[in-house]
Amino acid sequence: MNNEIITALIAFAFVSSITPGPNNLMLLASGTNFGFKRTLPHLLGVTIGFTVMVMLVGVGLLQLFDAFPLSYLILKVLSVAYLFYLAWKIATSAPFEHDDTRSESKAKPFTFLQAALFQWVNPKAWAVALTAISAYTPSFHSMINVAMVAVIFGAVTLPSTSAWVLIGAQLRRFLTDPFRLQVFNVCAALLLIASLYPILFSAKI
After folding, report:
1. Cα 19 vs. chain centroid, distance in angstroms?
2. DSSP letters of the chain?
3. C-alpha angle 183-157-87 in degrees, rounded to nearest 5
4. Which of 97-111, 123-137, 138-152 has the lowest mean pLDDT?
5. Do 90 and 29 form a contact (C-beta atoms < 8 A)?
6. How far apart are CA 132 and CA 136, in angstroms?
């Protein structure tokens, strides 16, 4: 993998990881509702989970999907259905309490494992992983090249997605009123659904 390909891959990784999508919108909502510290496992789960996903796609899943094209449609239906469910959960989540002496909300941030597993039902994650492997690795997909793609994505994804959590944590200061927080959560849920537009109207994930 030459320097030009690496540079192009870094640019692709940055654009795909910094732009709005299910991961970033959920991290924004989590940062707003729970703060940066409590969202950290969610953030690390996204980064490490997606890095592992890129590795596994490069190792063999891409060939599997090419052999069974129907799997694209099945994955799309399941992923979209799950994301609609998550949007509903965000929209209806209970407001947080700033006062630690009060009873805690039943709502909880994603755990590391939940965030890592979420990558496998995230349509944008599939689209990015498949594109990264098919466009930025040679046709023989050597393990070294696949590992380089995965490591570059991991290195770029962490600071890019962290920015969304930090923005959410800053918004938290201005959303102390339960009604304003509820409005924010509904808007975040609607944006999450809107982020599915390219997936719903594309031939492939």
Report:
1. 10
2. --HHHHHHHHHHHHHHHHS-SHHHHHHHHHHHHHHHHHHHHHHHHHHHHHHHHHHHIIIIIHHHHHH-THHHHHHHHHHHHHHHHHHHHHHTPPPP-S-TTSPPPS--PPPHHHHHHHGGG-HHHHHHHHHHHHHHS-TT--HHHHHHHHHHHHHHHHHHHHHHHHHHHHHHTT--SHHHHHHHHHHHHHHHHHTTHHHHTSS--
3. 25
4. 97-111
5. yes
6. 5
Distance CA 146, CA 29 (A): 32
**pLDDT digit string (tens) for 3-40?**
888 888 899 899 889 888 889 999 999 999 999 999 99
Residues in the chain, overall count = 205
